[in-house]
Amino acid sequence: MAKVYINEKNKKGHINPELYGNFSEHLGRCIYEGLYVGENSEIPNTNGMRNDVVAALKEMKLPVLRWPGGCFADEYHWKDGIGPKENRKKMINTHWGGVTEDNSFGTHEFFELCEQIGCKTYINGNVGSGTVQEMSEWVEYMTFDGVSPMADLRRKNGREKAWKVDYFGVGNENWGCGGNMTPSYYGNLYRRYQTYVRNYDQKHPIFKVCCGPNAGDTYWTENVLKTCFENAPEWMHGFMDGLSLHYYTLPEDDWSHKGSALDFDDAAWYKTLAKAFKLDELIHKHSTIMDKYDPEKKIGLICDEWGTWYDVEPGTNPGFLYQQSTMRDALVAGLSLNIFNKHCDRVKMANIAQLINVLQAVILTEGPKMLRTPTYHVFHMYKYHQDADLVESYIDGVEQIGEDEKFKVPHLQESASVDKDGVVTITLNNLSIDKAEEVEIAFAECNPKYVSAAILTNDMHAYNTFEDPDKVHEEVFTDYKIENGKIIFTMPACSVVMFRVK
Ligand code: AHR
After folding, report:
1. CA atoms within a 13 Å half-sphere pointing along the CA-CB vector of 135
2. Can you supply a Gene Ontology BP term from the record (predicted)?
3. Which atom of ligand 1 lies closest to the CA of 69?
4. Is the pLDDT of residue 403 over 90?
């Protein structure tokens, strides 16, 4: 039997709701069809935004959305996406399939979408091919309420009041698609560009995100921070509020053969999960470097691209990154979100890539049809952690499982939090393909009276299709007993379980 200990009295930090964020890029069918269908579409919509998708995202309690990229961000010129749609300039989406982007979804549409969902906004600016002036004017356009050329232009385009930009990324992957820069070159550009990301609304300062490393690239982290902190006043914290980290889970290390989303064996299951666990080590590594510059942890690590990346679904456009999502992805989501929770002292936001129809999406669409992926259900089950306090937890009796020595994973993994009403949320993953586990959950003081629970479990290969959209879905879980203040139950193989306890 595995014993899960929860010390709900020992609070370890606050879980920012933004740890449960998503990312939406002008890529494949994420924005167009996935989110935006236009006012004249037969698909039910409000001001062009799909009603079914908006409702599902509200239910999932999506806290923040990043846009417009990704690699697309450093090629995006925001002025092409404002004003009457028929006059908007078209462009080639060079990164993603070479398709024509008609810019019908731009700044106004993004804020409309976030207003409908009720989520915060994370805009990613263009450093790679944009100017300081362009970035500065975008911020003025979005956030200045007085009389100015950009605020007037916004009004002319139909929006009187300034919007609120919660997060602003100064470039994306500038070590790669965002300009192939060296860390010191980017660090200097960051210092310059961010200067003109003005806080017009002093009550709601913009959280500025500096481009951080790819996966294990500590050289980038070290040198960007060194450049940004050099001769900078201490109170400026290297001119940043956050430093990004991108990490994707690929079953194979070969980008031309990453592995299939649906057709995988037991070894690939464990290998994928082991690679997803690497996130823990990476956060630790980069955070240790950040500690040197920022021992008080004022700067957040912003994991604004994470998730699985497989070969595209056979027969689909390779530039559109469309993949299916099975129980394996549910477990990747479950273990990653537990890792983010446990690092909430440093990780202030995380955005899974991507929201709809791209990579580890929470929603897939096919014309008017929509389905929730297994990953969606995990986000939905974990939503109670948002804005709660992480509490001490650990598991006794964890075994390392998996066939290959190099890719072993713990068979169980957990995190726990307590919300403002004193309700403890526990999220547990059983990563084993075939072994159910007897589990006992014990608390420091809590004597569970009010308990509710949910489960997501199925065959390892199970996934939702447009013919059978609810094959994998969250269910109410009642198969537990309470004895001497402990919760005792059998956790099925390949499952995610969530308890709410008071
Ligand atoms: O999410 C797909 C791409 O992955 C993003 O555009 C880029 O930032 C990353 O390389």
Report:
1. 27
2. polysaccharide catabolic process
3. 6
4. no
Same domain membership, residue 437 and residue 347? no
Interface pTM (ipTM) of the complex?
0.99
Ligand 1 centroid – CA 378 distance (Å): 23
Q: Identity (one letter) of the amino acid at 47?
A: N
Q: Which domain covers residue 116, as residue numbers?
A: 7-390
> What number does the ligand 1 atom closest to the CA of 353 have?
1
| Beta-ladder partners of 352 | 22, 306
Residue 20 DSSP class: G
Here the CATH number for the domain that contains residue 466 is 2.60.40.1180
Per-residue pLDDT tens over the stretch 21-73 = 999 999 999 999 999 999 999 999 999 999 999 999 999 999 999 999 999 99
Q: Is any ligand 1 atom within 6 A of the Cβ of residue 362?
A: no
Distance (Å) from CA 24 to ligand 1 centroid: 10
Q: Which one, of 390, 394, 361, lies nearest residue 376 by Cα? A: 361
Residue 1 domain-assigned (yes or no): no
- Identify whether residues 308 and 381 lie together within a single domain: yes
Statement to judge: residues 395 and 464 lie in one domain: yes
Q: Mind telling me the catalytic residues?
A: 173, 305
CATH (domain of 257) = 3.20.20.80
256-272: per-residue pLDDT in tens?
Answer: 999 999 999 999 999 99
Q: Which pLDDT tens digit goes with each residue over 359-392?
A: 999 999 999 999 999 999 999 999 999 999 999 9
Whether residues 318 and 298 fall in one domain: yes
Give 264-269 contacts, CB < 8 A, sequence gap 24+. 264/328, 264/461, 266/403, 266/433, 267/402, 267/403, 267/404, 267/407, 269/328, 269/433, 269/460
Is residue 112 within 6 Å of ligand 1 at its C-beta?
A: no
